[in-house]
Design a protein that fits this description.
The complex is a heterodimer of chains A (251) and B (207).
Chain A: E1 5-13, E2 16-18, E3 29-30, H1 32-41, E4 47-51, H2 56-62, H3 64-72, E5 77-80, H4 86-94, E6 99-102, H5 104-108, H6 111-120, E7 125-134, E8 137-142, E9 147-152, H7 153-163, E10 167-172, H8 184-193, E11 198-201, H9 207-215, E12 221-224, H10 226-229, H11 235-244
Parallel strand pairs in A: 1-4, 1-12, 4-5, 5-6, 6-7, 7-10, 10-11, 11-12
Antiparallel strand pairs in A: 1-2, 2-3, 7-8, 8-9
Helix pairs in contact in A: 1-3, 9-11
Chain B: E1 3-5, H1 13-21, E2 27-29, H2 32-37, E3 41-43, H3 49-59, H4 62-70, E4 75-78, H5 80-83, E5 88-89, E6 95-96, E7 104-107, E8 116-121, E9 123-124, E10 140-145, E11 147-150, E12 156-162, E13 164-172, E14 175-178, H6 186-205
Parallel strand pairs in B: 1-2, 1-3, 3-4, 4-14, 5-7
Antiparallel strand pairs in B: 5-6, 7-11, 8-10, 9-12, 12-13, 13-14
Classes of the chains: A alpha/beta (251), B alpha/beta (207).
Chain lengths: 251, 207
């Protein structure tokens, strides 16, 4: 049986991993390949790197980290952040990433998904979306969650998959960094709308949260940052816990 | 030295590094002269069957590949590279494959999510096969595919289960394939590559 994936997420700025994006005065930094290797050794099934480098020029330099990670790891990894064109995507894949994740760039130009899927295959085109619950709906935000759009998350997920997205990272903004649990209702709603793997993001704080997202939320992958970065628990502890509760994981 | 065939289908560095980590030195090349001299070949591949087959045809390497197999030298296809070893595929119409293995490449239509993406367990059918010398039953490897090779059971060394039994490792005489990505399957995948390295060594010592 296919195992649920446990996926640490690393934010990269100017080629260095930064921990805790919502906190002012980031001090804690690390090397992407070194930290990636550590998580891989601990049993991570996949890694996600988001480049949060401020300018496009600086990002070109920052992207050298992708090659370093590819040289170090023998598990799949995804790279996102600032991918607006087919050339941006090609650049990252050429450097050795297995998947690219598009977000704001795809909202502004949905054809980016179609073109990337046709050129590189749907399996390496991931749609990431930042969403917030507003009334009865989930609204899609862009620009790192700063700018609201008119898109409804469920409709956008459906459209993106039709265009060729092979996987969706679903980030619940209200939950992000709050460690109060993944948004189960959101996972269920998107999961019912599309037939591609869904990675739950935003809110992991306890082992129970991972279980809830895998069981009730039916998430294929469980992404978390702070609980791993700050050592709340290890990847092995998450997997042991899930296994004990009957969730299939790779151990 | 085993040669990883470069026919313009993406990044081959991770495959080469996977072998390297297990002490197997390889060369990445699309040069017909290098391919013709190789004692073992690795055929990688990602993306669509038809496009990959066209690239391979355009490379002019197919006759060398065929002679290589006829000479009894080992060949390992990885992921789409494994699918290309079969007779044909129904991906985007009908496309002929290399026909080195019997069977057709068909879409995954079990009702489960497609692509079959992630880590799945190996069910070993021929655990004593040299390719699986360092792989244990139940170990997990990384899959990414929407089509699978419908293979005669006698060619299947290991299955994985995803609604249907998917041939995960296949082998017939000197032609081998893995549906998963050994170079992305952590230590288990690297141990499979080591097994192919041993097959290569055995070929050398017996010729």
């Amino acid at each position: 049986m296919l195992a649920r994936r446990i996926i640490p997420c690393l934010d990269v700025r100017d080629g260095r991993v930064v921990k805790g994006r919502q906190f002012a005065g980031i001090k804690d930094v690390d090397d992407p390949a070194r930290l990636g290797r550590k998580y891989s050794d601990e049993g991570a099934d996949e890694l996600v790197f988001y480049d949060i480098t401020a300018s496009a020029e600086a990002r070109q330099i920052s992207m050298a980290f992708v090659e370093a990670v590819a040289a170090e790891l023998h598990i799949p990894f995804m790279v996102g952040g600032g991918i607006n064109t087919l050339a941006d995507a090609a650049n990252i894949l050429k450097r050795g990433a297995d998947k690219i994740s598009v977000n704001s760039g795809a909202v502004r130009n949905p054809n980016l998904i179609r073109e990337a899927a046709e050129k590189f295959g749907a399996q390496c085109v991931v749609l990431s979306m930042d969403v917030r619950k507003e009334g009865a709906h989930y609204r899609v935000y862009v620009d790192g969650g700063r700018t609201p759009t008119e898109l409804d998350a469920i409709n956008w997920a459906r459209q993106a998959v039709t265009l060729g997205a092979g996987e969706i990272v679903l980030n619940a903004m209200d939950q992000d960094g709050m460690t109060e649990g993944f948004d189960i209702a959101l996972l269920q709603a998107v999961g019912a709308a599309v037939n591609v793997p869904i990675i739950a993001s935003g809110g992991a704080g306890t082992l129970e949260h991972f279980y809830e997202a895998a069981s009730r939320g039916q998430a294929d992958g469980l992404l978390a940052a702070s609980v791993f970065h700050f050592g709340t628990f290890s990847i092995a502890e998450v997997k042991d816990y899930l296994h004990a509760r009957g969730v299939v994981v790779r151990r | 030295m085993p040669v990883i065939i470069d026919y313009d289908v993406g990044n081959l560095d991770s495959v080469q590094r996977g072998f390297q980590r297990m002490g197997v030195e390889t060369v990445v090349s699309g040069d017909p002269a290098v391919i013709a001299e190789a004692n073992a070949l690795i055929l990688p591949g990602v993306g669509a069957f038809k496009k990959a087959m066209e690239s391979l045809q355009a490379s002019g390497l197919i006759p060398h590949l065929m002679r290589h197999v006829e000479a009894g030298k080992p060949l390992l296809g990885i992921c789409l590279g494994m699918q290309l070893l079969y007779e044909d595929s129904t991906e985007f119409g009908h496309t002929a494959g290399l026909g080195l293995l019997k069977g057709s490449v068909k879409p995954l239509e079990s009702g489960l999510k497609v692509p079959h993406m992630g880590w799945n367990a190996l069910r070993l059918i021929q655990p004593d096969h040299p390719l699986l010398s360092y792989v244990n039953a139940g170990e997990y490897v990384y899959f990414v595919h929407s089509f699978y090779a419908d293979s005669p059971t006698e060619d299947v060394l290991a299955y994985t289960d995803y609604g249907v039994a998917i041939p995960a490792v296949v082998g017939r005489k000197n032609v081998y394939g893995t549906q998963f990505h050994p170079e992305k399957s952590a230590d288990v995948g690297l141990r499979l590559l080591k097994g192919f390295g041993v097959i290569h060594d055995d070929y050398l010592s017996s010729h």
